[in-house]
Structures are given as C-alpha cells and as structure tokens.
Amino acid sequence: MTATLESAVDTAARTGMRTAKVVVVIQQKGGAGKSTIAVNVAACAGRSAVMSNADEATGAPIVAAGIDVQGTLEKWCAGVREEALPFDYVVTKSKLGILPGIIADPDRRRIIIDTPGFLDIDPDAEWGADPLGESRTADALREVLDVADLAIVPITPSKITWDECEFTIERILKPRAIPFLVVINMHDPGKDKGEKQLNKVKAWIDERNYPRVADPIRRYTLHEHAYENGTLVTEYRMSGTALNGREDFMRVALTMEQML
Ligand SMILES: Nc1ncnc2c1ncn2[C@@H]1O[C@H](COP(=O)(O)OP(=O)(O)O)[C@@H](O)[C@H]1O
Ligand SMILES: [Mg+2]
C-alpha cells in the first residue's frame, strides 16, 4: 500500500468512515414478511460474501439485527445451528447506541435490520410531520433510519398490506430521502387467481413508480415453519420447492446489492 493510501485508510478508520451499508426491512403492517425477509436475505448475502480467515477473528461481513423488543430475529437466529449461520446477529431489544457501533466497524459490509411487527405510529400526526411515536422502539427506529442506505418494503398480493406499504414509503421513507425497494411476498404460484392478484399488485406498485424486485417471493409451507425449525433458505433440505424458495430470496439479495 502506498503511504498516501495507508494514511487515507487510517483516517477512515479513525473518523469512523464506514464500509457497512445499512438495509432496513420495514412495513407498518405486521405479517407481510419482514422478519422472514431480513433473516433470509442476510443468509443469502452471507453465503455470497467474500470470506477470509480474518473473518473468524473480526466477525462476519454480514450482520443481522432486530430492533424489536420481542426479538423475533434473534430468537430465530439462536435456533439455527452455528455452522449453518453465515452471518453474525446482534440483540438490541430497542436499546439505543448499539447499531451505530457496529456500523463503524470497518470489517462489516452489510447490516440488515428487522423492524417491529407493527410500528408505533401517532394517529394524529399531520401530513409532513414525523408519524413515528414516542416509545423506546420508535426512538430505536429513528436511530436506524438516520443511517439507513436502503429500505426493503414487503407487500402482499392481498390488499391488506397495500395502504401500509404506501404509508411507510410516503410518510416515513420519502421525507427522510431513504431509497427503497418494494418486494412482493406470499405469491401463490401455479394458480390462476394467484397470477391475477400478482398482476394487480404489480400494476399498483408500478402506477406509483415505486422500484420493485422483478419477481415475487412465492408462498411455500416450507417458509412457514422455518422460524420454529431454526432453518434458513440457504439450509433447506434439497427439493424443488426448496430451490425455488432459495431463488426468491437470492433475487431479493441481488436486487438489494444493485441498489447499494
Ligand atoms: N413467502 C412465504 N411463504 C410462506 N409463509 C410465509 C412467507 N413469508 C412469510 N411467511 C409467514 O408469514 C408469517 C408472517 O411473516 P413474518 O416474517 O413474521 O412477518 P412480519 O415480520 O412482517 O410480521 C410467518 O408465520 C411466516 O412464517
Ligand atoms: Mg417480524
């Protein structure tokens, strides 16, 4: 390394210039797939990451974290066999100050953050005002949004999540100028009704000019039991469905990389 470059790297480390990019999975509505997406995208990114011996000592390049007091993400990860977990995870329980510390760590490349089941929203907040509430979780969410490089917003073919998708984008992400990516989750493959619903939700997203992952994450029973079984898409036992399921989350991870 040249002396100039060396001193530039030193300065970067000292001043906390970061290599880590922060991706937050957010959607006001619970049940759209935030936790499933956060865990599995971290797994796909972790399996695609460049590894070296140094990672053993310094920690994995990919980190997953949850700011949920319930700790869904941490509990899921704790249930996965250690050798099968291609990323590190952190427990925050909405405590402030933990995530900024990880972001400053020069060995970390991606921090993927799961957000609470449903957001603490002030129902009286006026247009233009920050609708996030006053709770500890809302503060933790603000801290994460302040450093977010990208938001992944899940939506389902069923209309039940559409309004909340729009609210999340228009009221929380756009005012903070956070780039976002919509991903359709729970598509029922191989059914005429499923295809019709899929086309409707795609049209709805495209009308609003929201960037989206080209193809949806399909609904498979396999994913439903992943949390209690302590499995990740990268570890499913080989089957046609397992491959399709893995492809869906790999596609999200790749699209995410293109946007970072
Ligand atoms: N693509 C999918 N196929 C089947 N089940 C899914 C899929 N995505 C999520 N689920 C299931 O739907 C439920 C809600 O997902 P979850 O990730 O917990 O949503 P959120 O974190 O947004 O509340 C969970 O039981 C999960 O296993
Ligand atoms: Mg969740």
* Strand order, largest beta sheet: 3-2-4-1-5-6-7
Return Rg in Å: 19 Å
Please name the fourth-level CATH homologous superfamily. Answer: P-loop containing nucleotide triphosphate hydrolases
- N- to C-terminal distance: 27 Å
Q: What's the number of structural domains?
A: 1
Q: Please summarize the sheet with the most strands.
A: 7 strands, parallel
Strand content: 5-15%
Mean pLDDT: 89
Spans with pLDDT under 50 lasting ≥5 residues?
A: none
Based on CA inertia axes, which overall geometry fits?
A: globular
Compute the number of strand runs.
7
Number of helices: 11
Determine the CATH topology: Rossmann fold
The run of helices and strands is HEHHEHEHEHEHEHEHHH
The CATH class turns out to be: Alpha Beta
Notes on the structure:
This protein is an alpha/beta fold and 260 residues long. The protein has a single domain (22-259), classed as Rossmann fold. It is built from 11 helices and 7 strands. It has helices at residues 3-15, 34-48, 54-58, 72-78, 98-103, 136-147, 162-173, 192-207, 221-224, 226-229, 240-259, and strands spanning 21-25, 62-66, 88-91, 110-114, 150-155, 180-187, 217-218. The protein has a 7-stranded parallel β-sheet with strand order 3-2-4-1-5-6-7, with helices on both faces. Helix 2 (34-48) crosses helix 11 (240-259). The longest helix has 20 residues, at 240-259. The chain is globular and about 45 Å long. The mean pLDDT is 89. The chain binds adenosine-5'-diphosphate and magnesium ion. Adenosine-5'-diphosphate (ADP) is lined by residues 30-36, 117, 185-186, 217, 219-220, 223-224, 227. The site of magnesium ion (MG) has 5 residues, from helix 2.
